[in-house]
Amino acid sequence: MSKTRFARYNIGQVIRHRLYAMRGVIFDVDTSFAGTDGDPTADGMATTLVYRLFAEDDEIPYVACIAENDLEPDDSGEPVSHPGIGALFDVQEAGGYRQRRQLLN
After folding, report:
1. Which of 16, 36, 69, 92 could join 23 via S-S bond, C-beta 3.0 to 4.6 A?
2. Strand pairing partners for 14?
3. CA distance 81 to 46
4. CB-based contacts of 56: which residues, under 8 Å, 6+ apart?
């Protein structure tokens, strides 16, 4: 029997990596990744959620896939500068990102 997992973070949420100088906007959650996250299930294998995000660091924008345990919320209020954000999200006045109803080509 599979265990239901709930995502800790939301699509459009700004997050940062716990260890590295990287932050980004979540655009997808991969629930099919099977890896170990230190919390084994009854069958001995744990699954962790992996988030896909439009990321930036001090050098370049890129797309990253990061395990949930390596992320934390970014409450800085600073915008994320990534060229892919505008195709999927509307930027809100408060600095948040809302998924577009219609995607841009």
Report:
1. 16
2. 25
3. 34
4. 22, 23, 24, 62, 80, 81, 82
Domain extent listing, the chain: 14-99
Structure tokens at 28: 């997808």
34-81 pLDDT, tens digit per residue, is 555 555 444 444 568 999 999 998 889 999 999 999 999 999 988 898
How far is Cα 38 from Cα 75, in angstroms, rounded to an integer? 27
How far, in Å, CA of 16 to CA of 30, rounded?
18
Structure tokens at 99: 């998924």
**23: which 2 tokens?**
């932050």
CA distances from 38 to 13, 46, 47, 74 (A): 25, 7, 9, 24
80, 98, 78: which is closest to 88 by C-alpha? 98
Place of tokens 């800790």: 8
Q: Which two tokens stand for residue 10?
A: 């939301």
